[in-house]
Design goal:
The chain is mainly alpha-helical. Helices cover 75% and strands 0% of the residues.
Amino acid sequence: CIRDRYKGTAKGAFGPIILFCELTFGGVILGLIFGFIATQWLKKIICDDILTINVTFVASYLVFYVAEFVDLPIKLSGVMALVALGLFMAAFGRTRIDVESDHAVHTFWRYTVYIAETIIFLLCGVLVSMKVILNPESLVEAEDYYKIILLYFCMIACRFGSVAIFMPYLQRSGYGLTWKEVYVLTWGGIRGAIGLCFALIISEDPAFPNILKQLILLDMAGCAVLTLTVNGLTTPQLVVKMGLNNQSAIKTKVFNSFLESMVSATEDHCGELKVNPYLNVCEWDKVFWIAGVEKYKSMIRDNYRTIEMAGFQQKNNAREMLDVALMSGSGPEHDDDFIIEARHRFLTSLKGVYWELFEVHQCGGDTVLLLLESANNDIDNEKTAMDSWSYIMNSFYNTYLMKVLVHMRELPYFGDHVKKLLYDQMVYVLSLIHI
């Protein structure tokens, strides 16, 4: 049981800290080891959906079993090991999976996650009803139901603190972070399957008293219901209120052009169908309503009003800018929104090209990961000039490392491995230069 597993392991003043480090960092290291083994195995599988799925499935359950139930010198967390395995597979495992098997693996895990979450929610609902709500011998009192609300707000406050404490670092890295985004991250945290799974484990552990097991079941189920109903239903309104869904005028105009093309194509196709004598009995007003033509026309009108309110010149904007430039004798002014949108579309299309090259085996997994990362770096730094090549050079060009490998290739025991590393590095560089 859980209590027996960790009983007596946190002795002394620093015992809890040592146990925490063992569970956390030990679990992460174990997950990374399993991830490395799994990716090396997947790299050798070609066009075998079943074997690829089995490797990912067995690796996931085996790492949890080893961490939780194998008697190791230190205590490890199965959850942390599984999280580390998942992150490693997301970063490096996808490019090791054969292209023909990628869709099958994705479909299998989507269905597996759906079934697992459904079973967990169903079991938790049944157990809460039988052991707490409808149980005449229940030890839960009426005031415990009100404490769920207090626990709910404490949970939100803890989430806010955990996000805000790392805000200085997050502001200077990656996508950056604002206080509005912190509020959305705090409110958008939904408690569900993982917490309920832990509650189910506790409820079946005989080492814990019945009152504790019933309270954990009730509190976790109550918090899951509150976050799903309150947070889940109000998060979209919060995003709108914070102004995080605002898009530039050029995006709105592009979207409007797409809607207009779709409505025009629908009307033209329906016009062709109207001349068909077999479709004379059709009620075309209902057909247009079912197709959503009027709804899309209303969206187009609303978008145009948004564009006008934003001061965006819908028609002849480029011509007016050129006329002003010719009259003043200077170059045309740049529209920052237009440049950023064009740049984002170009880089997104470029990432698609990289994946297509990988799918037709024109570059390796490490190559496509570096190319995608270089494109993502340019997308993140939209205020600076694009410089993918410098990012790529800094990632793989290391003269000191190459000199060390060249000198080590003649060593008696490690020479063959060093030569293979040199060969792989040259293939890696040539693949990048070729693309």
